[in-house]
Every structure is written in structure tokens, then in C-alpha cells.
Amino acid sequence: MSVSLVVIRLELAEHSPVPAGFGFSAAAGEMSDEEIKKTTLASAVACLEGKSPGEKVAIIHQHLGRREMTDVIIETMKSNPDELKTTVEERKSSEASLTAQRSKDHSKECINAAPDSPSKQLPDQISFFSGNPSVEIVHGIMHLYKTNKMTSLKEDVRRSAMLCILTVPAAMTSHDLMKFVAPFNEVIEQMKIIRDSTPNQYMVLIKFSAQADADSFYMACNGRQFNSIEDDVCQLVYVERAEVLKSEDGASLPVMDLTELPKCTVCLERMDESVNGILTTLCNHSFHSQCLQRWDDTTCPVCRYCQTPEPVEENKCFECGVQEYSYLLTSQLESQRIYWENKIVRIEKDTAEEINNMKTKFKETIEKCDNLEHKLNDLLKEKQSVERKCTQLNTKVAKLTNELKEEQEMNKCLRANQVLLQNKLKEEERILKETCDQKDLQITEIQEQLRDVMFYLETQQKINHLPAETRQEIQEGQINIAMASASSPASSGGSGKLPSRKGRSKRGK
Asked: What Cα–Cα distance (Å) separates residue 434 from each residue in 91, 139, 395, 427, 440?
């Protein structure tokens, strides 16, 4: 199922204040307020560009037609009381700016005039605030446009978080309306009740916290009766944007890609073929099908043109002599021709728009395919580069594996050599120890021999230093060494000396 989003435009007079918090855009995150305003007024700027002020007024008046500006009452209901205070402050500031402007104009007028008395210097108007702060009265015209493109009601499609109830019976009070939307009070951010010159009905704008909440309200309340007594039903539409524009900016001029919805002259409701069936009579007047069914007569409710004329014999025109039947038949054929021509034009326009939309979608699809092809080529290139890197890494891994095996073999050989060398080292240490022991024994023997030699040399030197008689006596003497114990070598040496002298003396005797 698909629906058309609507655009609500409030065209204000030059002196009318701007209502607070009326602006809304479903694409607020994508475009700023200035860009949205430039886009909406692009056709108006192009139409009024290069025109004099008089020509601009004539063009605006031509598109405005017989529509007259009336008072529009906007009643705002917000869930947060702090926002209501903000609205009051904004309204006070706007009124203060208007008062300041008027006071400036009054002061300019009074500059040239000399003050006669203090009472004449008082201002003509004193600004004050009274009444309900949530109710604003502006002067202008309410326009309702329909977007030419259809939007699907699927969950993943972006639509809007604001809904509009097109027609609410005037007998239904604000309290009754709050009861009607009571199940969704927690997700409603604000609700604006708009009353214009349309009798017996008014419009309601409801802004939700998220699009999912708006979808739930649309599914639950669209086509539902307001109460069990009356036949009026709730007709909901998604609001793409709500904007406020001044009349001198070209708010009445046509908007590109938007179609302004006319009103049915029977029920005074907006006619939208996506919501209600529309019938066009032979006199090129359009009505709701259900409204025209209530009309018992065969004439048009607007111009009273007979839709099924009956021929009457000898009924001629006094001036031209043409019979009424032929005239009626001719006018009927002419009306049918005009009707079918308009219908053909509308069909051609709709077909052209559908073709353009299909071309646009086809171009977008081609662009997406091109982008996907580019991404695929990039991925293939990346795949080839990754494969080359993998091949190089595999080669390096194989090379490192071979080197690791060689190192392991070399390590094994080195360990075997280390064991052999350790055994050789132990053998060499043992041999070195034995050699050292032998050397120590040899050194000990040599030291003993050297001591004996030194003793001999010292004795010889001492003997050489003795007198010749003593040397001769020593040479001729004999030494008798008696057997003695090993424990007293000194005493035996001493006793041996004495006997040797005794013996010598005996030999001398």
C-alpha cells in the first residue's frame, strides 16, 4: 500500500505575526531550514524575478484568485510544560518587537511636532499580554499540497513523524479529541488544532516522538469513526513539511512537484483521489463520489447544469431557431470533449511523471550497478594482491622451515661434539693432574738434593775459611759414627765428635 505525503503551507499577511513552533520538516537532518525555504520558493523566485513591484502584486493576485485571507486560530497542546513557557516567551518577544516598531514609527512622527504638554508625549498603545498562551490568531490562508510521488507504507521506508487529521467535526471539542488520541498520549510531542474559515470542521496536526509511533497511530485510527453516533471518520495523511511564508514572498504561487488539493463544494473537504473517489461532471466540476450520491437532482450542485437532458419537441430558440435538444446535445458533447481532453492531459501528465520516475529509478539502478562493479573490481584487485602476499609468505615459511631443520641438525651435531669434547677434557684434566703430581715429587727430590748440595757447599766454604792446621786436622781425622736412636740425632752428633777426638789422641800417643 502506498500513500502521498502532504505539504501544509500557511500563507500570512504582511502585518500578521508568525505562529511559534509551526515549522516542521521530515528531512530536517538532511537539509537546513534555509535550504528548505530556498527549495520551496525556487519556482516563486523564478516567476517573480525581474518583475516590478506592481507586476509582482498582479501575479500574486492572479494566482490568489478569489481566495481571501481570514483569521486562522492555532491552538497548541504540548506534553512538556517547559515548552509551553517557551511558546509564551516567543509570543511575548514577537509582540514586543511589533510594539517597538510601532513606537519607533510613532516617535518619528512626533519628532517634528513640538510637545505641548506631558500628556501628549504618552504612547498611543501600550503592549500587554492576556488570554490563553497556547492559542494564537494569525491572518492568512491555509494551503494543502500533495506530493506527486507515492510513498510505501513498509517499515523500512522513511516517511514522517507528523500526521494530519484533515477534517474533524466542529461539534467535536478539544476534550473529545484528547479522548480520541488518549492511547497515544505518551508518544505525542505536540498537537496543533487549526481552525480557519471552513465551517463545521477543523484540521489537527499531531507530531510524534518517532516515525514508528506515527505508523502505529496511522494503522490504528485511519478510517476509524470519531464516535458511534456520527458517520464522520478520521482521515489521516503523512505531513512531509509544514511551513509559514509571507504573501509577498510568493506563497500563493505554484510549487514544483506539488499539487494543491481543491475543496469539494458539497462537504468543503479536500479532494484527494488517494483517499476518496472523485467524480467530474460534464460541466467540469469535481466532487467526492459519496457527496454526489447524496445529491438527488440530476443537475450539477454548483452550476445546476443538467447532466441527462431530455429532448422536447418544437422547443426552438427565438433568435437562431436551433432546437433545444441539438443545443443541449452540442453542449453536452462539448462538455464531454473538454472532460476527456482534461482527463487525457492528466493521464499524459501522470504517465510522463511515472516515466520520469521510472527513468530516475533506472538511472539510480544503473549507478548502483556501476558502483557495485567498481567495488567488485577493487575487491578482485585486493584479492590478487592478497594472494601474491600469501604466496610470498608461503615461500618465506618454506625457506624458514628448511633453515630451521638445518639449524636443528647442526645443533644435534654440536651437542654430540660437546659430549666428546667434555670427555676429552676430563681425560686431559686427569692426565694433567697425574703430571702435576709427578712434577711435585720431582721438585721435592730436586729440592732435597739442592739442600744437600747447598749444605755441602756451605760446609766447604766454612772449611776453606778455617786455618790451615785445622783443615789439615780435619782432613787427617776420622769420624766414627756410633749407633744411636733416631729420636736424638743432635746428642749423637755431639757425642760422636768427642770420641773422634779421643781416638785421634790415642793415635797420637
From this structure: 120, 130, 58, 11, 10
